[in-house]
């Protein structure tokens, strides 16, 4: 039996259904078989629009400090953003990504079953740069005789581009190893670099050249990682027409945001899609869906994205055995298809899905 | 019989299959029934990567000046952009849009037939702002101890946002009138405003507020035009999941680029999707596809996007009767399904499709 290891996990439910899915994430961690030798201690942390309305601050310092000083990992639910600018409010998840230097946002998308539109299995990961691009949020507005004009900075650095392409290469190599272990020869390891360097030769050109340079590393070549590129508009077009072709897609922040939502639509529901915000020394799992105010409080939100985010967090904490147990239990729940939440066409409650997955954990 | 009117049309084939589809556009104009009282004179104009390689200039002054001084409309084929920055080269279509102030890029997307994934007909238009956003192409690069950093400006003005939202409102009102004329009650007139104002409150916030203000005009209310909004990532998600819901989508330049390619994928081929670059006093029709070097010269490129771009150009020149004849002939060709190019699963040559559409013109 493995030596026991205790991990400290921050729980940040945020707003809306975040308050329903994050407890589900905690339950699955507590239900992991004891043979894995893992223990978890939890700390509840605040952030979100509700927090902002109560305290005037969307991301309290205590949350950031506790994550930095105490936590190995964390789970973040969702936040409700007001569409109109609200004085003093800005998205706490965007701020958290920057404050903790969570430089990679990793979003695997996997189809449940073949469909008429997509007979071949979809199994891809978008690896999104998570700290810069238009998300530096440097904007200004000035007046002209024709009325106001606003400008924002899109910033792309060699450093962040190299770092994100490197982790994309590592993910592609790891996925290839896993497929090889399963005797799955359906796909070659591949990273597709996306950009719009035909319009933005300096910024996106830098992302492109830094990515290609990083991915040319000998260890990626040894792992057989092929490197391709797609202009972002063609990428979206091809993603919709032949998603099964893709393996790992690396993108600057904004394109990554758009690609991962589009890929989620191809597998029918954001309720299935997990993400991990990866930094040095900390990983924050985060379901890709939003706070879904329309269904919040009804106990019918889909916990799958969060359960998979827990697994993804464990993956990046190098706890692959624990991670694969959760993935397998979730896949078995979906394949069985009897306990599904309404977004998947079923009638199950959040808790019933969680209990079904937990039952399958020890299996 | 209507009084005869002569229109001067610039023909800019550009690169690759642009050289095959633009002649098809000319042929359809020449084949319009004489009862419409329309005459066309043509002027051949150069632009593109081939032009750049031959002359060192991608968009010759003569092309711009002739369009400005002589032409009512024009047809633009496609350009091959090198992916890597090429000294002195930048996309002539982006430059043309700015030099002629072609402020709106209008891209209607329509499904040919119900599919398993999309049983309801898709019939939407993206109205893309065409002169600013990241397409101002103002970039700079500087060195830091961590290597180079590049920045680009995203510029959004009240003026351009108001102008694009206004034309979107007009298009929605016109579409509603056409549907009403056909007794089609399937859809209410609607404009969906897309942006990312949760991350970019100043730039995208300005696009949002200027759009809502413009669309609140009494004439749009009288025409029953409903106004909604979607954050761009959710927009792409919803577009893939329920495209039949949407009518007119208005977007800043870059999001519009991405939305129109994604929408094209939903109807299976960019080879079907036309566009019009609309300015004051000139309209340039342009198929949405690229120069397709892989099939260039084989005579098998799909002319439908260009034929529809001709119709769209005529629409914006207020020649709706001529436009609707071309739309109907193209729809009849597609509905018949016997003469289709390879991208549509058929075996027809470009010329055979053009001849089939021309045969149906007088029908
Ligand atoms: C809520 C929003 C700021 C966020 C983003 O744009 O990154 C979300 O869309 C996401 O993808 O996590
Ligand atoms: C070729 C490229 C510069 C262009 C654009 O981004 O506008 C194209 O993708 C388009 O949509 O017309």
What do you see in this structure?
Chain A is α/β, with parallel strands linked by helices. Chain A folds into two domains: 203 residues, Isopropylmalate Dehydrogenase (3-Layer(aba) Sandwich); 154 residues, Isopropylmalate Dehydrogenase. Chain A is built from twelve helices and twelve strands. A ten-stranded mixed beta sheet of chain A has the order 2-1-3-12-11-4-5-10-8-9, sandwiched between helices. In chain A, strands 6-7 form a two-stranded antiparallel ribbon. In chain A, a hairpin with a 4-residue loop joins β11 and β12. In chain A, α1 crosses α10 and α5 packs across α6. The longest helix of chain A has 24 residues. The relative contact order of chain A is 0.15. The mean pLDDT of chain A is 95. Chains A and B meet through β6, β7, α5, α6 and α8 of A and β6, β7, α5, α6 and α8 of B. The complex binds 3-isopropylmalic acid (2 copies). One 3-isopropylmalic acid sits at the interface of chains A and B.
């Amino acid at each position: 039996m493995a030596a026991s290891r205790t991990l400290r996990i921050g729980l940040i439910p945020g707003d809306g259904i975040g308050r329903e899915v994050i407890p589900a994430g905690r339950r699955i961690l507590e239900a992991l078989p004891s043979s894995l030798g893992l223990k978890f201690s939890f700390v509840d942390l605040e952030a979100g629009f509700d927090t902002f309305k109560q305290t005037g601050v969307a991301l309290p310092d205590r949350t950031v400090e506790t994550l930095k000083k105490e936590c190995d990992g964390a789970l973040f639910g969702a936040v409700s953003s007001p569409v109109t600018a609200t004085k003093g409010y800005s998205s706490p998840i965007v701020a958290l990504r920057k404050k903790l230097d969570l430089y990679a946002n990793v979003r695997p998308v996997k189809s449940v079953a073949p469909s008429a539109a997509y007979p071949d299995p979809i199994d891809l990961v978008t690896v999104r740069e998570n700290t810069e691009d238009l998300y530096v949020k440097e904007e200004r507005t000035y007046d002209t005789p024709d009325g106001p004009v606003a400008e924002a900075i899109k910033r792309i650095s060699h450093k962040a581009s190299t770092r994100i392409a490197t982790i994309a290469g590592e993910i592609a190599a790891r996925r290839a190893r896993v497929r090889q272990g399963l005797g799955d020869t359906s796909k070659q390891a591949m990273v597709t670099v996306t950009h719009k360097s035909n319009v933005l030769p300096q910024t996106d050109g830098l992302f492109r050249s830094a990515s290609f340079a990083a991915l040319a590393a000998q260890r990626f070549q040894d792992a057989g990682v092929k490197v391709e590129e797609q202009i972002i508009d063609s990428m979206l077009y091809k993603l919709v027409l032949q998603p099964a072709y893709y393996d790992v897609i690396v993108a600057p922040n904004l394109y990554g945001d758009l690609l991962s939502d589009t890929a989620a639509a191809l597998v029918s529901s954001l309720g299935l899609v997990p993400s991990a915000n990866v930094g040095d020394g900390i990983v924050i799992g985060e379901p890709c869906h939003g706070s879904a105010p329309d269904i919040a409080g009804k106990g019918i939100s889909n916990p799958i994205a969060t359960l998979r985010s827990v697994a993804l967090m464990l993956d990046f904490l190098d706890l692959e055995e624990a991670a694969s147990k959760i993935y397998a239990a979730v896949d078995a729940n979906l394949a069985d298809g009897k306990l599904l939440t309404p977004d998947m066409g079923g009638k199950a409650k959040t808790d019933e899905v969680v209990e079904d997955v937990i039952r399958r954990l020890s299996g």
